[in-house]
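Researcher: I'm preparing a figure for a lab meeting and need a structural model of a single chain. I don't have an experimental structure, so a prediction will have to do for now. The sequence is pasted below. Please return the structure as tokens so I can convert it later.
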Amino acid sequence: MIIVLIGYMGSGKSSIGRRLVKKLDCSLIDLDDFIEEKEQATVKEIFASKGEIYFRKKEEEYLLELLKFKEDVILSLGGGTPCFGNNMNHIIDADNTKSIYLKSSIPKLVDKLIKKKAKRPLIAHIETKQELAEFIGKHLFERAHFYSKAQYQVVTDDKSKDEITEEILELL
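Model: Understood. Here is the structure written out token by token.
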């Protein structure tokens, strides 16, 4: 089975993915890391040198490759991946795949991301919590249509990582 974790940056895709790997004894693949390995460049470098259109085409190509894996894997997507091209349809239509939207509220995302914004190029320029909340709110409004197509939704607010992990395991 391929378990696809979907959600906004800071929603816990990577940390929950690492916990699921331990419980399910499978591999974790971060799509952005996979792209960087295949392209021999960071996502930031790809955007700078070849542009977003090139990146999004490669993202779809590599997503399709990963969705054909036969072994059990947790696949953590970039926050924007489900929103481009036919990516969400590819995920829904893939055999032996479960998609899970890790849904976090704007205030919870702001609290997590404000501390880590220097490591996140998309939000590094944002100065205040209010500006960050507006930025996230706009993105979530645009992305909600795609995220909500996931097979399951798990609300992450006010839950520990262990509680979220257990909730996902119960869904599977």
